[in-house]
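Researcher: Structure prediction, please.
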Amino acid sequence: MAIPKRKLGKTGEEVTILGLGGEGILRTFGLERDAYALINRALDLGITYCESARAYQGSESYYGKALKERRKEIFLTSKSHARDKDGALEHLHETLHNMGTDHIDLWQVHDVRTRRELEEIFGPGGAIEAFVEAKEQGKVRFIGVTGHHDPAILRSALELFPFDTVLMPVNPAEASHKSFVEGVLPHAMEREMGIVGMKVYLRGLASRVPGYQSMEPYLRYALSHPVSTVVIGCDDLRQVEQNVLFATRFEQMTDEEMGEIVEYLHPFARQLMYYKP
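Model: Predicted structure follows.
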């Protein structure tokens, strides 16, 4: 059974509801063989949305070595955490080189957290100038923004620039604490943006929650929102295959089911969202 697809907002693109995240085994160095196998297994199983970031260690290079002739099969994304134009352009140069491509489909302003960062990114000489220039030159097709620290900051970013996509947390714990679903998602929908969910499994902590130790309810919860896709980093082939299985048999959660899992996680939602090992 094929992974269902959804429209990526106003981009006109259709992507699988499950994307391969740039973390997990991909956020390492020196594991080329394992990363190659994982990326190609994800593509063989039908995943079309592939994510990375300049900050994710060897992730971009792993994609570059694995994709080659398969580049046209996927919607390829990456991110820059630079806050100034020159730094962002340098990141893009490195990204394109590492990924072995002349363009990426989506380039994202990475992990916006503070008002100070907003001023830097959108002020004179700020990173957003690099993003606009790159799109004009055909080096990137679409521009996005990401954040998982403060929904108010991410919402402000949406008001400052007509982004094509937004990447944000969508899980039943964040619903009880600094909710991006309440604070950002409606505004993204108004702008017809592609909405990409992350932190679906609470950075892997979901498996520690008694009563909800299967990952499937968390994926169902995220996909029951009006997201285009969700990205999940994987440690091994088993996790890729399990996530694909969950995605192929996805069924919309009822409001009652969604309320139950949110209520169950509420007492330790903050702890799950901000856990530091």
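Model: The longest helix spans residues 85-99.
Researcher: Thanks, that helps.
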